[in-house]
């Protein structure tokens, strides 16, 4: 049975946290991680930041190959960053233990992550890997999304639930369709590409934690 952990990690203890080096008052939210061969390219939103200075500091980091602006709104900008993940022990430990990032938000001193692992054994191995790498972290909550006390969202993150509910209420899944991803994007304040990816992940989480739950899992 899968298990979800909510945790906080000291920003200076993992490579991506050091690369982004968030100044006070700025918030970063990871939208998704896009596989690119043996690399993983994160798409992330930067809120209330000085765009030029942020891009310059990230681009100058020796581990960064490229930083690309994808979309821009009044209070936030969507970026893709291509960086060498080989020396990032935190993300390496996630991959090695079959973990998946459900949500990630960064501030100046720490990042909050919501991670899913196949089971408690994988989660334990992940925590041991972080301890071995000297990464400071605090576990906030560990829960199984299929249990009654896990809440009514069946593993959906708040942003995934918001997007899926809006899509259904706006007629995106109606036949014929009465709403487009562009219209959903305008309402959510993100790009239409981000809407498509968020809905995809929401549906996968919903099916995984409802239709694919066996009788043994629910006991």
From TrEMBL:
The lineage of its organism: Archaea, Methanobacteriati, Methanobacteriota, Stenosarchaea group, Halobacteria. InterPro entries: BAT_GAF/HTH-assoc, HTH_bacterioopsin, WH-like_DNA-bd_sf. Pfam families: BAT, HTH_10. Residues 24-148 form the Bacterioopsin transcriptional activator GAF and HTH associated domain. Keywords: Transcription, Transcription regulation. This is Predicted DNA binding protein, contains HTH domain. It comes from Halorientalis regularis. Residues 156-207 form the HTH bat-type domain.
């Amino acid at each position: 049975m899968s298990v979800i952990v909510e945790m906080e990690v000291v920003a200076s203890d993992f490579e991506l946290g050091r690369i982004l080096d968030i100044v006070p008052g700025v918030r970063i939210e990871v939208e998704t991680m896009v596989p690119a061969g043996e690399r993983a390219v994160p798409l992330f939103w930067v809120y209330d930041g000085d765009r030029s200075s942020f891009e310059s500091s990230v681009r100058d980091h020796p581990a960064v190959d490229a930083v690309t602006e994808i979309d821009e709104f009044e209070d936030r900008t969507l970026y893709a960053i291509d960086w060498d993940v080989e020396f990032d022990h935190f993300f390496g430990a996630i991959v090695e233990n079959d973990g998946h990032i459900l949500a990630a938000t960064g501030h100046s001193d720490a990042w909050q992550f919501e991670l899913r692992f196949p089971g408690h054994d994988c989660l334990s191995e992940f925590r041991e890997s972080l301890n071995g790498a000297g990464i400071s972290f605090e576990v906030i909550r560990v829960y199984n999304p299929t249990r009654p006390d896990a809440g009514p969202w069946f593993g959906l993150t708040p942003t995934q639930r918001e997007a899926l509910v809006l899509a259904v209420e706006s007629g995106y899944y109606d036949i014929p369709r009465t709403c487009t991803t562009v219209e959903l994007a305008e309402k959510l304040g993100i790009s239409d590409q981000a809407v498509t990816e968020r809905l995809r992940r929401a549906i996968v989480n919903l099916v995984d934690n409802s239709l694919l739950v066996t009788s043994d899992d629910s006991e």
